[in-house]
C-alpha cells in the first residue's frame, strides 16, 4: 500500500537526501560568491595551466648502475637479518606516520546553548562542519567555515518563519507559541551579537589542525 510505514519512510528518506543536496549546493554557491568578493574574479581565460611533469622515480626503484662494474673479488655488502614479524621496515615506517583522523569540528558553544531545544539543528550544523572539514577551503578555511554556519542558520530561520506562518494560519494558539519560540531562537542564533559572537572554539580547532585542513 502507498501509505505503508515502509513507503512513508522511503519518502521521508528521499526528502532528507534532497534537502541535504540542496543545502550543499547553497553552501557552495555562498562560498563561491564570497571568495569572488574577497579575492576578486578569476583572470580572463581562467587560471594558467601548469604543465605536467613526469614524477621522479623513488630512490629505491632506480636501477643501480654500479653493480655491473663492481670488482668480482670485492666483499658482498652485509645483509640485514630477516625478522620473523613478516613485515618490512617500509611498512612499519608507513604505519607509524599514518595520519590520525580529525576529531569532529566543534559547533560553537553559544549556538549549542541557543538551539539546545532543537537538537536536530545542532546535528545539522555538526554534519555540515564535518563535511566541510573533509574538503576545506585552503585559502580561507576559517572564513569558509563561518559561511557554512551562516548559510545553515539562514535556512533554519527561514524554516522557522514558514512554520510560524502555518501556525498563525491554523489558529492553534499552542502551535503559534511554539513557532514563535523557534523563530526567536533561530533569529538569535543567526545574530552576530548572540549566537555568532563567540567563534573562538572554531578558530582554535582550525588553527590546531590547519596542516590537515589545508
UniProtKB/TrEMBL annotation:
Residues covered by region (Disordered): 39-59, 167-195
Name this protein carries in UniProt: Uncharacterized protein
Highest classification ranks of the organism: Bacteria, Pseudomonadati, Pseudomonadota, Gammaproteobacteria, Lysobacterales
